[in-house]
Amino acid sequence: MQPVDNYSNHRKQRRGPVLIVFFVAVISLLLLALLAWPRAHRWGMQQIYPLRYEALIAHYSDERDLDVFLVKGLIQAESSFNPDAVSWMGAAGLMQIMPNTADWLAERMGINISEGDLFNPAFNIRMGTYYLRLLIDMFEHIDTALAAYNAGMGNVRNWLGQISYSYDGETLHTIPFPETREYVVRVNRYMEIYRELYG
Questions:
Q1: Which of 11, 32, 48 is the last residue of a domain?
Q2: Whether the predicted pLDDT of 198 surpasses 70
Q3: pLDDT by residue (tens digit) across 17-52?
Q4: Residues with catalytic annotation?
Q5: Does residue 117 share a domain with residue 31?
Q6: Which domain range does residue 28 map to?
Q7: What percent of the chain has a predicted confidence (pLDDT) above 70?
Q8: How far apart are CA 9 and CA 14, in angstroms?
């Protein structure tokens, strides 16, 4: 008859409840992580895609009958909501308006413009949404208007007149400028991201 190893049996008996507690704790933590993930993911996305000047954007989008998320997506694509942004070509402010375009728009709007106005968020959004509305009215399709916002009205009119870029003279099946092509895709993607995050 072999001696009974009481110590070993005692250890095995204690290990059982400890393992159960451990596995319950791990499963609980995993469940908590799964429940917290959507909120944490949303918070993280909001840090990448911030929202500033919401009241101004809402006001001028409403005034111009524009999709507020389109305007937010455009601002994200243009300046990442930085009111002091300046492009290598000289476009300025939140909606990246070229100074000569700003002069032309100011004349159409019947307002005065002075140096530094394009860096004023309220002025820039007011002018940028006016320009976007004008382009949508002119070209009747948002993607075509976005192409014009990026590449200029003259280029887009020229492309619409060529079968290699437009089959119907109204929409562009091909955008010859890679930057403009990517810009249109980017604005649309940001628009949907902002709609999902803040809608």
A1: 48
A2: yes
A3: 666 766 666 665 556 555 555 566 567 777 788 889
A4: 78
A5: no
A6: 1-48
A7: 79
A8: 9
CATH of the domain at 85: 1.10.530.10
Same domain, 43 and 129: no
| Backbone torsion region of residue 96, taken as left when φ is above 0, otherwise alpha when ψ lies between -120 and 50, otherwise beta | left
In this structure, the answer to whether residues 27 and 62 fall within a common structural domain is no
Contacts of 26 (CB under 8 A, 6+ apart): none
Look at the chain and report how many structural domains it folds into: 2
**pLDDT surpassing 80 at residue 166:** yes
Residue 58 and residue 44 in one domain: no
Residues 62, 121, 52, CA angle at the centre, nearest 5°?
A: 75
User: Which tokens belong to 121?
Assistant: 């968020």
Q: pTM to 2 decimals? A: 0.79
- CA-to-CA separations, 111 to 90, 102, 106, 127, in angstroms, rounded: 21, 10, 5, 10
